[in-house]
Structures are given as structure tokens and as C-alpha cells.
Design goal:
Shape: globular
Number of strands: 12
Structural class: mainly beta
Helix content: 10-25%
Strand content: 35-45%
Radius of gyration: 21 Å
Strand order of the largest sheet: 10-9-8-1-12
């Protein structure tokens, strides 16, 4: 999970670059908000093949998004949830944008998250930023670390259902 709060400054656009780990940069994306137009967009394939740098005018660039209900002069709050290929963006004004990106996997031993904050055509202030690494919600059966009470509830639910159940059935039984 990533959370960022931007103040405009003189920049026309602020956002987050999500670097691709694939050869040639294919699969990267940028989450951009234009203060002038009020548009929040995800721009895909915005890598200039001649310079291998980010460019909104890259020949293969594609865009999705739409206008936000952002009040003028208010800081922009974005919460980004990014897993292997799903990107969800939640705004402080209540809008949600969801898409898929295919960045690939970082090279073995690489600790850089491949995320950069940007301000285009001026400066902006990154008021607040927080980053969290999320673990998988699906654990291998031998790696489940349940509390004793949850284990008893799951076993009782499985017995009542007449047999073994998978992890999703166990979790659903716990939340009924």
C-alpha cells in the first residue's frame, strides 16, 4: 500500500511513476493528476524508445482515467494498492480507479521498489508519504499461523460441513 499527499506548488501535474522490470521498459505506468484539467490518469507505456526516459508524448502511450471532484487549492491525497498486476487508486475525494499493469518482477536481490514521485512543469510538495509491504492473503497450508481459537472454529466448521475445506471456505466460515 502506498499513500501520498501532494500540494500543488507551480507544477501542472503530479504523480507516481511505476517502473517496469521488463526488458525495454514495457509494462511501466504513471499515475498522474493534472491540477489544470482535474484529470487523474494512468498512463501506460510512456517510455520514449529513443531515450528510454518517461515521456507523455511517447509513441505507444495509452491513457485511462477521468476527472476528480478535487476542490481547488486542496492537497491531493492518493492511496495506491499495487500487487503483482492489479493497481487500485483511491483518492481523498472518494473516487476509485482500478486497472492492471504488468511490470514484471524485480531482479533477484533488488531492493528498490521501482516507484518515483514526480512533478511536471514546476515544483510540488510531497506533504506526506507512507509505504507498506503487504503479505499474501493466501498462505500455504503448512505456513498458516492461526490463533488457537481460530483453529478451533475452523476445525469445527469443517467437521460440521462434513469434511475438509480449503482456505477460502475456512475464512468464510470465520466471518459468518
Amino acid at each position: 500500500m502506498r499513500q501520498a499527499v501532494f500540494s500543488q506548488g507551480s507544477a501542472s501535474t503530479v504523480g507516481v511513476l511505476l517502473r517496469s522490470w521488463q526488458q525495454g521498459g514495457e509494462g511501466g505506468a504513471a499515475v498522474l493528476y493534472s491540477w489544470e484539467s482535474g484529470l487523474l490518469e494512468v498512463v501506460f507505456e510512456a517510455l520514449d524508445p529513443a531515450t528510454m526516459t518517461f515521456s507523455l508524448t511517447a509513441p505507444m502511450a495509452r491513457r485511462i482515467g477521468g476527472p476528480l471532484q478535487q476542490k481547488p487549492g486542496q492537497p491531493l491525497a492518493l492511496r495506491l494498492l499495487l500487487d503483482a498486476s492489479c493497481l487500485e487508486i483511491f483518492t481523498g475525494s472518494g473516487e476509485v480507479l482500478s486497472t492492471r499493469i504488468y511490470r514484471g518482477s524485480p531482479p533477484h536481490g533488488h531492493t528498490d521498489a521501482g516507484i518515483e514521485f514526480v512533478a511536471l512543469d514546476g515544483d510540488a510538495r510531497l506533504e506526506r508519504v507512507a509505504a507498506y509491504e503487504m503479505a499474501s492473503c493466501i498462505a500455504a497450508p503448512h505456513k498458516r499461523q492461526w490463533q488457537p481459537q481460530q483453529q478451533q472454529q475452523a476445525a469445527a466448521a469443517a467437521a460440521a460441513a462434513g469434511g475438509s475445506r480449503d482456505l477460502f471456505d475456512e475464512l468464510a466460515a470465520l466471518h459468518q
